[in-house]
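Q: Got a minute? One more chain.
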Amino acid sequence: MNASRSSPLATQADLPPAPKRVSAPMLIFIVVLALLIVSSFYTLNMKWSALFSDSAVKTSWEFLQGFAPPDLSPALLTKTFFAAFETLAMSALGTFLAAMAGLCLAIPASGRFGVLAMRCTRLLLNIARAIPELVWASIMLIAAGLGPFAGTIALAAHTTGVLGRLFAEALENAPNHAALTLRINGASTLSSFLYATLPQALPQMLSYTLYRWENNIRAAAILGVVGAGGLGQMLKYHLSLFQMQTAATVIIAMLLLVAMVDALSFSLRRWLMH
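A: Always. Here it is, folded:
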C-alpha cells in the first residue's frame, strides 16, 4: 500500500519543470516586432489591387504563353545537360570547400582556443555570411573573370560563414562527458576532440552540410545570371534575346536538377539521423 501510494509522488518528481512564463523583456520584444511588421505594411504602400487587376493578369498570361512549347531540339538539350552538370559541380565543390573551411573555423569559434580567438573567428564568420552570394560573385568575377570558378568561390565564401557558425554551435552543444573521461585517463586535447566530441557532432554537421548543398544548387543557378556559368548564364542569355521557348527548357532543367538534389539530400539526411 505504501509503495502504491508513493508511486504517484515519484511520477510527479520525474516530470520536467514547468515552462517559464514570458518575461518582461521578451514581451517588449514581441510588441516591438509586431509594431515593426504593422509599420512595414503601412510604409511600403503595397498596391495589391494593381497586382490582381485584369490588365496585370492578362499581361502575365500572355507572357507565360510565350514559354510554350519548350524547345526540345537535340543540340539545345545537349547544351542544357552540360550546363546543368556545371551548375551541379559548382554547388557540390563550393559546399565541400565551405564544409572544410567551416570545420577549421568552427573549432576556434566554439571557444576551444580562448575567448579572443572565439570572438575574432565569429566576427569573420559573420562577415562571410552577411555578404550575399551575388555580391561575392561580383567580387570574384572582377578577380577571376567570367566562368564557374568565380561562382564556386562565391558559394564557398558565403557558405563557409553559414556552416562555420552552425558547426561551432554543434560542437558547443555536444555532450562533454566522453571527452572529459578521455582527458582524465590521459588522452590529449586533440585525441579527446577527435574521438569523443567530433563523432557526437558529426551526424548533425553532415545534415547541415547536405541542407546547405540544397540551397547552393538554387544559388548556383542564380549566380549564372551575373556570368558565373551554368544554367543561370544560359537563362540570362536566352531571356535577353527574348527566346522564351529556349528559356523554358533551361527553367525545366533547373527545376529537375533542384528536385533531384533535394530528394537525394533528404534521403541522405534521413539515413544519417536514423
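A: The first helix runs from residue 2 to 14.
Q: Perfect, thanks.
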